[in-house]
Design brief:
Layout lengths: L3 E2 L5 E6 L13 H20 L3 E12 L7 E12 L3 E12 L5 E14 L11 E2 L3 H30 L8
Parallel strand pairs: 1-7
Antiparallel strand pairs: 2-4, 3-6, 4-5, 5-6
């Protein structure tokens, strides 16, 4: 399978902030932003794998850096930064732009892991990626360490799940 350039997986989506998306602090709900990032990252995964079904396996980290206000636009850039056999690590960079002043600021970052599935819901192999820009090279090079950490977290999560009860708390 031929490797693909990271830039070919890049998706850029820009939205305005609507009043219904604000919390009681008049900033964008974190969950609303997470939904937008997941939707953008899905397109990057599909663009890379060219598979109809790419599912979110995990949200490895979300870092909220600056609040996003109603006077801002929200620009989400996503792209594949690292791949496993059937998994794709996707980085999301969120830039808020004050529409009155034009000042842009980094509002959030996130790493999500997606898996490409065939028509039988089985994982399929995905191509490796080729970084070109300094940003892409940095994210690619640090991806191996994030993959190790994610593997450890998956192992810990399996252990956690084995210890959880499904009984109703009032029984």
């Amino acid at each position: 399978m031929e490797p693909k350039k990271i830039k070919d997986t890049r998706v850029v989506q820009t939205d305005q902030v609507l009043i219904n998306d604000l919390n009681n602090y008049h900033t964008l709900f974190g969950g609303v932003l997470m939904k937008k990032m997941d939707a953008c990252a899905t397109l990057s995964a599909r663009r890379h794998s060219r598979i109809k079904e790419c599912v979110t396996a995990s949200t490895d980290s979300v870092n909220f850096i600056e609040p996003i206000r109603q006077s801002d636009s929200v620009c989400i850039e996503s792209f594949v930064t690292h791949t496993g056999k059937s998994s794709m690590e996707i980085f999301c960079k969120v830039i808020a732009e004050d529409l009155d002043t034009g000042i842009r600021r980094l509002a959030a970052t996130a790493f999500l892991t997606f898996v490409a599935l065939d028509e039988n819901k089985k994982p399929v192999e995905v191509a490796k990626v080729i970084p070109e820009s300094e940003e892409e090279k940095y994210l690619f090079e640090t991806g191996k360490e994030r993959a190790k950490i994610s593997k450890l977290k998956r192992k810990q999560n399996i252990e956690l799940i084995s210890k959880l009860s499904l009984q109703k708390p009032w029984d």
